[in-house]
């Protein structure tokens, strides 16, 4: 139940932010907004305020802002022409469409800034204690255990984990004598590093180095900072996740990251519940990441998504005339098929994970 509630709240907020971007800029440019809906499908609740009907609809996996003259073939009364979306300059239509994804990116920045301003910047404090020993590794063969503290290697004092990494990496595969502390007692163990591949965040092999097969024991602490430093950190965090999202899409296309890693609503609900259980900061951080994903994915040049509309408007700006209605409809149908296929695929992945299929 917690997962479901946290999922509905999280997704509802992100959809609201997205549609609010479209809504505000439509209003700014004088476009008449007929409906503002959270969700698709049948109306669950609605209320008319002014010229706009505000709705909550049955299916929560999205939302929409319906504007007058949004469809090129829509009939608009002469007196309403100046408030029709399709009669606005192409640059204004592009801004209205782009505002949704951009608001998601800005919302993520705001969340990260708030987290850093209130809680502080996270720092990983690590000494030379071992957090994990890889099975069947040189470290395991040498008798190293999680919780051991490495005091020296071949007589060279190790005060930081960087000291440990450097001495192992430059060992050229020779045996190393490690002086460790375990349960308050000092002992010496001998381990022989082997060359092992090093991988980036996407699992690609980017090189190799001598390793023992150990990882450090980290402790997360938060360092209080001012608003200026928190804002800069929020910008950096937002950009880092934008880059990772874009590169993740590229790596999936290149088959570096398996498509089975894609998750849908069920997976998002599970993660939302886990983050909420871990604490509000973790939940807000997850919301920021998801908001960036939503913003970036919506900017992809796929018909039916905001990025597809932006592609149409860009062509219109270059050609000085819009694509024919038939062409737009055909592209929209293709986009609908692609999006529908993707939804079926991610639902399959979610269900496969739930029942342990293919793992």
Q: What does the model show?
A:
A four-stranded antiparallel β-sheet has the order 5-4-6-7. The chain has a two-stranded antiparallel ribbon with strand order 1-2. It is α+β, with helices and mostly antiparallel strands. The model has no long low-confidence stretch (mean pLDDT 83). It has two domains: 245 residues, no CATH class; 100 residues, Pdz3 Domain (Roll), CATH 2.30.42.
In short:
With 359 residues, the protein is of the alpha+beta class.
Q: What brief labels describe this structure?
A:
359 residues; alpha+beta; Pdz3 Domain; 2 domains; 25% strand
- Report the structural category: alpha+beta
Q: How many β-strand runs?
A: 10
| Integer average pLDDT | 83
Largest sheet: 4 strands, antiparallel
Radius of gyration: 27 Å
How many domains would you count in the coordinates?
2
Give the termini separation: 26 Å
Low-confidence stretches: none
Q: Give the fraction of residues assigned to helices.
A: 40-55%
Element order, helices and strands? Answer: HEEHEHEEHEEEEEHHHHH
Strand residue content? 25-35%
Across the major sheet, the strand order is 5-4-6-7
Shape: elongated
Number of helices: 9
Chart the SSEs and their pairings.
Layout: H1 2-28, E1 33-49, E2 52-67, H2 90-119, E3 121-133, H3 138-142, E4 149-153, E5 156-157, H4 161-169, E6 176-182, E7 185-191, E8 194-199, E9 205-211, E10 214-223, H5 227-253, H6 265-278, H7 280-298, H8 306-319, H9 325-354
Antiparallel strand pairs: 1-2, 3-10, 4-5, 4-6, 6-7, 8-9
């Amino acid at each position: 139940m917690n997962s479901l509630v946290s999922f509905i709240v999280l997704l509802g907020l992100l959809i609201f932010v997205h549609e609010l971007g479209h809504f505000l800029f439509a209003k700014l440019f004088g476009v008449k907004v007929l409906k503002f809906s959270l969700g698709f499908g049948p109306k669950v609740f609605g209320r008319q305020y002014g010229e706009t009907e505000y709705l909550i609809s049955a299916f929560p996996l999205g939302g929409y802002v319906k504007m007058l003259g949004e469809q090129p073939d829509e009939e608009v009364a002469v007196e309403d022409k100046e408030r029709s979306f399709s009669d606005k300059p192409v640059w204004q239509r592009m801004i209205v469409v782009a505002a949704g994804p951009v608001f998601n990116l800005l919302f993520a920045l705001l969340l990260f800034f708030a987290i850093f301003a209130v809680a502080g910047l996270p720092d990983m404090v690590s000494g030379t204690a071992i957090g994990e020993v890889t099975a069947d590794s040189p470290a395991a063969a040498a008798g190293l255990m999680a919780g051991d503290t490495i005091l020296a290697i071949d007589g060279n004092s190790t005060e930081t984990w960087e000291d440990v990494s450097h001495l192992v990496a430059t060992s050229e595969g020779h045996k190393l004598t490690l002086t460790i502390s375990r349960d308050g007692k000092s002992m010496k163990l001998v381990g022989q590093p082997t060359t092992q591949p090093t991988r980036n965040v996407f699992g690609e092999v980017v090189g190799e180095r001598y390793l023992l097969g150990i990882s450090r024991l980290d402790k997360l602490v938060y360092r209080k900072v001012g608003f200026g430093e928190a804002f800069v950190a929020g910008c950096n965090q937002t950009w880092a996740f934008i880059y990772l999202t874009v590169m993740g899409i590229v790596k999936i296309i290149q088959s570096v990251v398996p498509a089975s890693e894609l998750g849908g609503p069920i997976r998002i609900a599970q993660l939302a519940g886990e983050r909420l259980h871990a604490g509000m900061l973790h939940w807000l951080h997850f919301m920021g990441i998801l908001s960036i994903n939503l913003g970036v994915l919506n900017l992809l040049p796929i018909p039916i998504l905001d990025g597809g509309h932006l592609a149409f408007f860009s062509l219109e700006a270059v050609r000085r005339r819009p694509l024919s209605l038939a062409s737009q409809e055909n592209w929209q149908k293709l986009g609908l098929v692609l999006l529908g296929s993707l939804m079926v695929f991610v639902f399959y992945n979610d269900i496969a994970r739930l029942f342990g299929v293919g793992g």
